[in-house]
Amino acid sequence: MGPAGTANYYATYTTVLGIVLVGIAFAALAFGANRLLRPTRPTREKLLTYESGVDPVGSGWAQVHVRYYVFAYLYVVFAVDAIYLFPWATVFAAPGFGWGTLVEMFVFLGFIAVGLLYAWRKGVLTWT
């Protein structure tokens, strides 16, 4: 690639650079317009911390048992499982999807089942 080829190669990125600059300018303009046009009347009540309609009492530090994080993690695992299962189920009957696709899905479900079995054997799924 000669000097002319290199120049043409980098010239193709000017479009990308232009779009990035327009995006940055648009975001800056939007934030600036918001700051100029919004009403600002801070009062003591508006500056207080507000949590679900209850005034805060005590310190904000509270320890949470690790079991709640494990349940959240298991939820995420099964939510991801559902995200992959439902689209697969809708296109499985389409032409081009055959036994290979079915086997791949059962391998995927097998991994999920092994994880669930492991969690059950470790006692993670008991709420005590």
From TrEMBL:
Any coiled-coil regions, as ranges: none
Subcellular location(s) of the protein: Cell membrane; Membrane
Superkingdom of the organism of origin: Bacteria
EC number per UniProt: 7.1.1.-
Translocase is among the record's keywords: yes
Pfam families reported in the protein's UniProt record: Oxidored_q4
InterPro entries: NAD(P)H_OxRDtase_bac/plastid, NADH_UbQ/plastoQ_OxRdtase_su3, NDAH_ubi_oxred_su3_sf
Topology of this chain in the membrane: Multi-pass membrane protein
Reaction(s) catalysed by this chain's protein: a quinone + NADH + 5 H(+)(in) = a quinol + NAD(+) + 4 H(+)(out)
Annotated transmembrane regions: 12-37, 68-91, 97-120
Keywords for the protein's UniProt record, in alphabetical order: Cell membrane, Membrane, NAD, Quinone, Translocase, Transmembrane, Transmembrane helix, Transport
Family according to the record: Belongs to the complex I subunit 3 family.
Task performed by this protein: NDH-1 shuttles electrons from NADH, via FMN and iron-sulfur (Fe-S) centers, to quinones in the respiratory chain. The immediate electron acceptor for the enzyme in this species is believed to be a menaquinone. Couples the redox reaction to proton translocation (for every two electrons transferred, four hydrogen ions are translocated across the cytoplasmic membrane), and thus conserves the redox energy in a proton gradient.
Oligomeric form and interacting partners: NDH-1 is composed of 14 different subunits. Subunits NuoA, H, J, K, L, M, N constitute the membrane sector of the complex.
Protein name per Swiss-Prot or TrEMBL: NADH-quinone oxidoreductase subunit A
Gene: nuoA
